[in-house]
Amino acid sequence: MGLIKGLAKKMFTTGVGGAAPTESESPPVSGRVPPPPSDSGFKSERGDQPHVEDQSHDRDKGIDPRRPQRPLNQPPDAGESAIDFEAGQPLAVRPAEREATSLLFEVASGAEHPALACDYGNACSGAITVLAGTRRGISHARLGEPRQDAYAVKADGRWIHVAVADGAGTKDRSGLGAALACKAAVELSCTGATAADIAAGVAEAIRAVAEAAGEEPLRYSTTLCWLRIQTGDLGSDWELELAEWGNSELVHLTPDAKKWHRIRKQFASPTGDTPTLPSDLQPTLHALPPQARWRPGKVLCIVSDGVGDFLEEGSPLAGALAGVWSQPPGETAFLGHLSFRLAPAHDDRTAVVLWRNDSFEPVSAD
């Protein structure tokens, strides 16, 4: 716990806690803010049936010449789950001794709350392709409120650490709370922290900022989904550890079948309210290796409820996203996908999507 408090204090008690700038101010420190998406992607005049145009021509035109074309392996049967959930052992993690050759090391959506942010990169020596994006929802835009979702991703040798958070809509500082939670989660994850340690560390980070600003910590309340993956041999299952607090969640996609798999929560709030940090330290879901694993051919998506609530089987959005996220799209197209119009989807939308690159040899770190 001393490590958690020390890290939280170092990370968050300096220069944080003032009023959050508006979207018209400076861009995020870590994430790039691309131009607004074009009219291609999801569009609907009525707002009830999203339409998806084929985005493959974006890659053909070279919108992002860095992006290699990496076909996914043949996926398992549609009925197979990418993750099994039984009691297991936590991942034994240690900080990387040196940086791996990668286009993506550490990115975050930023605490400045721009209306949209997006990051792309190949992580873990090219073993994983990552697209992360967040966009302010219609309800917040109409009221002139900042985005309350956040994400953070950190690649650390053969490991990748991901966090997505959604600030509680009724709390005025929850957007900053979401950014703090994501930052603390990935930093602690790199040290080998357990899920309990991460919950405590996020709560400590939020309390430190709130106390420095003379504010109540519950004003920073946020959900959190945290994921840690250890990459392994190409074509093999990779172990992962996952914990969720509230309704930010991990869902996974079988591309050929265009089928989404949801994960049943293990715990529920006795009051029926959505659990949030810093007050609710028990995760609503916790999965451990060796049962929890990422199988070849599966696509992992860590999403806020602004996306996850509309991925139920039969939803028009579920089918649309299953088609366009079977392979990594371009960054502009990806933000266009997060700009879907579908009643009653009005909340912020955030997704961090991970594709395995089992068909390519990893880049040497030497």
Characterise this structure.
- The structure is a single chain.
- By secondary structure, the chain is α+β, with helices and mostly antiparallel strands.
- Helix 1 crosses helix 5.
- The strands form 2 sheets. Strands 1, 4, 5, 6, 7, 10 and 11 form a 7-stranded antiparallel sheet that branches. The protein has a 6-stranded antiparallel sheet with strand order 2-3-13-12-8-9.
- The model is unreliable at 12-49, 51-87 and 94-102 (pLDDT under 50).
- It has 8 helices and 13 strands.
- 21% of the residues lie in helices and 21% in strands.
- The chain has one domain: Phosphatase 2c, domain 1 (4-Layer Sandwich).
Computed over alpha carbons, the radius of gyration is 19 Å
Question: Helix-strand pattern, N to C?
Answer: HHEEEHEEHHEEEEEEEHHHE
Distance between the termini: 35 Å
What's the overall average pLDDT, rounded?
Answer: 77
Structural class: alpha+beta
Report the biggest beta sheet as strand number plus sense, adding barrel if it closes. Answer: 7 strands, antiparallel
Give the count of structural domains.
Answer: 1
- Return the CATH topology: Phosphatase 2c, domain 1
Question: CATH superfamily, please?
Answer: PPM-type phosphatase domain
* DSSP E strands, number: 13
Count helical runs: 8
Silhouette: globular
List keywords for this structure.
366 residues, alpha+beta, Phosphatase 2c, domain 1, seven-stranded antiparallel beta sheet, six-stranded antiparallel beta sheet, 8 helices
In short:
21% of the residues lie in helices and 21% in strands. It contains eight helices and 13 strands.
